[in-house]
Structures are given as structure tokens and as C-alpha cells.
Amino acid sequence: MTIARIITGMAAFTLIADGAYAMNHSATEPAASASASASTWEPRNKVTLTHPGWSRDAVLYQINTRQFTPEGTFKAAQAQLPRIKALGVDILWLMPIHPIGEKNRKGTLGSPYSVRDYYAVNPEFGTEADFKAFVDAAHAQGFKVILDLVANHTAWDNALATKHPGWYERSWNGTPRPTPWWDWSDIIDLDWSKPGVREHVGGAMEKWVRDFGVDGYRADVAGYVPLDFWETMRTRLEAIRPIFMLGEMQQTASHFAAFDATYAWDWHNASKRVAKGEADATAFYGYYAENESLWPREAMRLTYIENHDSNAWEGTLAENYGPNLAAMTVLSFTGEGLPLVHNGMEACNQKRLEFFEKDPIDWKQGEGCDYGALLKDLIAFRKANPALANGQWGARMIKVETDKAAQLFAWVRQKDGNKVVALFNFTGATVTAKLADGLAAGSYKEFRTGADVAIRPGDTVTVPANGYRLLSTDGARGASPIMDK
User: Which of 124, 129, 51, 119 is nearest to 90 (CA)?
Assistant: First the structure.
């Protein structure tokens, strides 16, 4: 069909095949219109929550009370607080502390995520007084404490199932149902369209913060619970005290008014593929590109090497990372992200801990193991380098261009005069690469050794097999090979 152009005054109209008209505006517009347009297109930040100041450079430590000590109690865990403090972590995340359901229980002791009573403490771990003593002792030593909250579902024998059967979702035959598709036969799903459900769970959250001094929550399968509930609870809990919220979900909007931090599953999955040689270093590009372009600047994303799920169902540190464990851990602790130490990691735990049985960590594994020392040094390094801070407090990662992109993963983070250069080689052979520009140029100290290192534009750099190089203008010390000059 012929396209006709009709010129009328200052605007040009194009007649499209379906008869519609498209207008091409002239270069001049009324001043009032321009002013209104400027207001319309002004960027707006949708993040309304404020991170507690103590989360600025915080590192999380996850405690599975049942497996953390031979006794498996709050009192026994409390005795270990000075040791954890020496590691340098800040926020203690306790897996669910509540009584565990018996009906349809898995294993002998059941899953901590099958909650029989949100308002009580599991007698396996001790009493409410024991728990309060743990929290008080943790606070006295400078820790914050967050609890694992299981809002999506309860145990079959939670009293709510009898008192309020209408508060549960139903299967096709009218019976309470576990979460669809998953093999979670020991739990049944709450119906979050019921105001009573929200009030009951929300009331429990307020109790532990108000009466026991808890500093926030890690929300289990948070994405299966309506986001407006988490936003409501953020406001209500902050009326009591500043809190920190970690959500087991991967959703940008959850950071607007609910969660300080969420899971970086894409990072975790990429890290395992790269570590096993199933993908090269460029497999991280998609994650970091999306992290910078899509996610709020304030978002803290949990770049974890291991947690209770990965250890139990995916494999041990050795199984998942092999010879790349140290290098990948360094990336987890220095790249954009929120690091996590899972109980037993610092002792080089070599086994998959039982999930439904008593299976205490063998802390003797840590004797002669450098991994715990590496974690301690990395935490000190993070705190010594402001560019590595969490969320909006830290600096963006800027890719260092080299002629070996598939073999060498390299970046710079710099802010307020502090600069960190990181180079990673996840392959089984030494890599020597040429820098394409002067981004990484400068004078630095080597992580752990404190050796002086100078980089000039266009220099070549060498990183050993399954190794890393970590340099800073103002950082902590530790051991790495010396950079080519």
C-alpha cells in the first residue's frame, strides 16, 4: 500500500497501512510542556526501606543448632560464641528454633522447617530462657541475631490445623496439601488470603523481636508468601527496633520495602558450573550484568558458597568446588554480594550433614585446615576496604579487559580513594594475560603477604591454576603469588 505523508503546520503525520497516523514532532515545543515532561521523566527510586547501619559490611554466619555442637543446644552454642567472634562475622542466623511436627515427620527428628508452634521453642534445643540467654550473650559480644521464619507452611500437627482448618490450602480432594510439586510431605501450606494467618504469623514475628531482642529474620521460601505481608511486617517490626531481613527469593521488587537481602541463586549455580569446568569464566557475565542493570543499587544479594540446603542436597564444599574452592570463596567475599559462612565451613567440613537426624559437626576437621584462616582473613579484608561494603555503600565491579577473557575473570572496585583489584583463574593451568587498558593500574598491597605490587597500563599479569590475585590500596594482608611487573 502507498504511504502518504501529510504536512500540517509544525507536525508531520505519516499514514500507516491500517489507516493510523503517526506524528513526528518538530524541534520546538511549548515551555510548559517541556517543564511537565522533565517532571514526568525524572528518575524515581522505589526503595523505601533503610538498611540498619550495622549491616554495612556485615558477614552472616548460619547456625544449625542441632548439628552445631555435640549437645545440640542453645547453651552449648552460646559457649562457642567467642570462637565465632574471632572469625569476624557479624550476624548470626539461627535455623528454625520452634517445635517440630511429629505427624508425617521425615526421619527420626524431623525437619526444623516443619513448624508445630511459631510461639514456642523446640525442647530439643532448650528452653525459652536458654534462648534468651543466647541472644543476650550474642548481643554482649557484638553480634546481631536473626531467626529463620517458616511462614509458607506448618507441620501437619500444628494446632492451627485443628483450630482453624480454613486457614490452609486444599488439594483437589479437599484435604490440606503440602507445597505443590515439591516433595515436602511433612508440611501443609497456609492460605495467605486469610487475615487470620497473617495476624498469627505476624504476631509471632513481633514476639521474638519485642520480647527476646531478635534483630530480624531469614524468611524461608519467602517468594511463596505474598510480598505485601513482608512489607507490612517490615514496617511493624521497625516500630520495635531496626531490623535486618533476608529473603529466600530472587525478586527485585522484594527490596523496595521488605528485604535488605535476598538469595543470589544464579550466582551460586554459575559458581558451581565454573568450578567444575562445565563453563568458563564468562558464565558469570550474565549474573553481574543483570545485577548492575536490573536490581536496585541498595540490594544485598547472598553470594553463598554453602548453606544448609546446598550441603545436604547438592554436595560438600569439596564436591561442589574441588580445587577452585579457595578462589571461588574469595570471589564470594569480595565481589558485589553478601557473604555467608555456613556452620562447619571454617572447619573444612567434608560431609553432607544429615537433615532429619542428629549429626554433629566434627570440629577436629579444622585442625591444619587453612580454609578457616582464609575466611577470617577475607572478613578482615572486607572490613579494611570500604569499596567492598554491602549494598549501596560499596563500589560497583568494573570489568578489567584482557586478552584471555574466558580464562581470567578480573575486575576493579574503587570508592573514595580505596581500590581493590581481583583476578581469578578457575582453570587447571597457569594463565598469563595482557591488560587492555589502565583500569587496573596502580600501586597495591597483596592480600595476606602485604607485598608491594605495581601495575602499569598494558602490563601482563599471571595467575596460577585454580588461583586468585587480590590487591588493594588500603587492605588487609595474606598469601598470593607476586604479580609480573
Answer: 51
Residue 311 has pLDDT above 70, yes or no: yes
Q: Which of 353, 371, 393 is the last residue of a domain?
A: 393
158 φ, ψ to 5°? -60, 140
So what's the pLDDT on residue 367? 83
- 300 bridge partner residues: 261
Put residue 182 in one of left, alpha, beta given phi > 0 → left and psi -120 to 50 → alpha: beta
The pTM assigned to this predicted structure is 0.90
Cβ burial of 238 (10 Å; 0-12, 13-18, 19+) is middle
Give the domain extent around 36: 5-40
Helix axis angle, 227-238 to 195-212, nearest 10°: 30
| Residues 279, 344 within the same domain | yes
Contact assessment for residue 433 and residue 402, using Cβ atoms and an 8 Å cutoff: yes
Q: Give CA torsion, residues 405, 407, 408, 409, to 10 deg.
A: 80
Number of domains into which the chain is organized: 3
**Residue 180 pLDDT > 60:** yes
Phi first, then psi: give them for residue 120, nearest 5 degrees. Answer: -130, 170
Same domain for 374 and 407? no
**Has residue 483 been placed in a domain?**
no
- The pLDDT value recorded for residue 37 is 74
